[in-house]
Amino acid sequence: MDINLTITLNEKLYLRNPEESELGKRILEHSIILIERIGFEAFTFKKLAFEINTTEAGIYRYFENKQRLLLYLVDWYWSWQEYRLMQETRNVEQPKTKIMTAIRLLATRVEDDISTGHINEKLLHDIVMSEGAKSWLTKHVEADNKDKLFQPFKDLCALIAEFITAYNPRYAYPFSLSSTLIEMAHSQYYYMQHLPSLTDFGHHKDEDEIIRFLEQLVFGALDSQAKEK
Amino acid sequence: MDINLTITLNEKLYLRNPEESELGKRILEHSIILIERIGFEAFTFKKLAFEINTTEAGIYRYFENKQRLLLYLVDWYWSWQEYRLMQETRNVEQPKTKIMTAIRLLATRVEDDISTGHINEKLLHDIVMSEGAKSWLTKHVEADNKDKLFQPFKDLCALIAEFITAYNPRYAYPFSLSSTLIEMAHSQYYYMQHLPSLTDFGHHKDEDEIIRFLEQLVFGALDSQAKEK
DNA sequence: TTTAAAAGATAGTAATACTATCATTGAAAA
DNA sequence: TTTTCAATGATAGTATTACTATCTTTTAAA
After folding, report:
1. What is the pLDDT of residue B229?
2. Residue B196, CB, less than 7 Å from strand D?
3. Whose CA is closest to A110, among A97, A123, A99?
4. Torsion of Cα atoms, A176 then A182 then A184 then A185, to 10°
5. How far apart are CA A143 and CA A71, in angstroms?
6. Burial class (CB in 10 A: 0-12, 13-18, 19+), B8
7. Which of A131, A183, A212 has its CB closest to that of B137?
8. Has residue B119 been placed in a domain?
């Protein structure tokens, strides 16, 4: 069986659709590798062009600038996570199980998914953790938001918020809890790796601990609310 | 009464201590104003120099680069928040009240504190929300961490973790809960302002709602744990 | 076979992120 | 009072970044 997963993103993210050409796919593939290796600040289109034996101008035909390319990658990641979550919660009855599945998918180190040829999900996961926030922490958030450039993140957030509401319809903050969960799954992992004293996962660096922390956090909030009301 | 609050920070943050000269203080004052106005990406030492009628080279005598200056400002902010929190929890007996004070201080929009002449805390609060993460999301986090450049954040995190442990000694994740609380107090506020559909604070934009969300989150986690064990 | 889009090659510009050097000032030490 | 020395100011210069423009060649469909 040869399944090929293609994720289609908002057209405003690019000048020319990178999924529709060989060069485009090489740009995606190697931008992930290069950003992961040298970091987004040091990453330039010139360096990327050198890596894939094309020219700087060639890359500018696909993406307006490196910020847009990053946003493309980040959106791709959130779309992929939402897809995975929908897959894994299909046919699941219990809202509790759905939420636990979400936590597991978000907080577990990603392995490369072979069904998406040129995208290395493992590296992309690292990029989203260490660079992802830079895609919305800008002076043009609101303009980008109007252009729906954060839609994949919002969709994922809304999906998990649905699970939350299904679990406890009286809980007052399903969206905030959902965005907190998504953000913390990534940033606690980052802290565990780089600033462990901000966590309790010390140096054994066990991601299962993050899962337990998040489960306890989420269900603590959801179950106590049920009691209080 | 003329109280003057001076916060002393890690010497590795700067080349020349900006608190010790008039020019240094003007750099701090106007970097806050300018970063808040144009954003960290567009901010340059040349533009700052123009604002305060000095030269680019003059600013480079104080800070190695703009990233270090940002880290200085962010560290200043966390030191100030820790100071405020210690002030406001002194003589408070109940751990629960201490935690609620922490939540209130972190999640309430800051007003300018006149006791610190050249620092506008209100603007600094905005900067920490929208640019703060960029100070640790770098390829040199670990080197910076070895140089203790994140100490103020860690200290604040540890202080709140103490309150948490005092409230419930059996809770397993005081540091992670503390860092989650600090981060969410800022990022839920940012979302409320710029990406409200990630929250439940819609468009009335009421920070008291964030406080209630955080209280319910934190005490939900802390109280349910007590039950389970 | 033509033709038009994509890619390659090359050049150029303004801004950024610095470093270096030398002159001037101003306040404390001699 | 003079010296002196640190801080600042003024100016220049460099490598890199972040683009834009143009012209040619390749490729793939009409």
Report:
1. 39
2. no
3. A123
4. 150
5. 14
6. exposed
7. A131
8. yes
Q: Which nucleotide is nearest to A58 (CA to C1')?
A: C7
Residues 6+ apart with CB under 8 A from B9: B72, B75, B76, B79, B152
B136 lies in some domain: yes
On whether ipTM exceeds 0.90, the answer is yes
Q: Give the nearest partner residue to A221 out of B130, B197, B216, using CB atoms.
A: B216
Question: Residue A228: what pLDDT?
Answer: 46
Structural domains in chain B (count): 1
Strand D proximal to A44 Cβ, under 7 A: yes
Domain membership flag for residue A7: no
Give the model confidence (pLDDT) of A175-219 as tens digits: 999 999 999 999 999 999 999 999 999 767 788 999 999 999 999
Q: Which residues of A touch B150 (CB under 8 A)?
A: 195
Number of helical (H) and strand (E) elements in chain B, helices listed first:
10, 0
CATH number of the structural domain spanning residue B180: 1.10.357
- Would you write out chain A's pLDDT as a tens digit for each of its 229 residues? 456 778 889 999 999 999 999 999 999 999 999 999 999 999 999 999 999 999 999 999 999 999 999 999 999 999 999 999 999 999 999 999 999 999 999 999 887 666 677 899 999 999 999 999 999 999 999 999 999 999 999 999 999 999 999 999 999 999 999 999 999 999 999 999 999 999 999 767 788 999 999 999 999 999 985 444 3
> Which residue shows structure tokens 């990327």?
A48
- A184 and A69 Cβ atoms separated by less than 8 Å: no
DSSP string of B166-223, one letter each residue: HH-TT-S-HHHHHHHHHHHHHHHHHHHHH-GGGSS-TTT--HHHHHHHHHHHHHHHHH
Chain A positions touching B220 (Cβ under 8 A) are 217, 220-225
**Nearest Cβ partner of B174 from A177, A200, A210?**
A200
Q: What residue numbers bound the domain in which B216 lies?
A: 69-228
Residue B36 within a domain: no
Between residue 7 and residue 26 of chain A, the positions with Cβ below 7 Å from nucleic chain C are 16, 21-24
Q: What is the pLDDT of residues B29-65, one digit of tens each?
A: 999 999 999 999 999 999 999 999 999 999 999 999 9
Cβ contact A56 with chain D strand, < 7 A: yes
Distance from CA of A25 to the nearest CA of B (A): 26
- Give the minimum alpha-carbon distance from B210 to chain A in angstroms, rounded to a whole number: 9
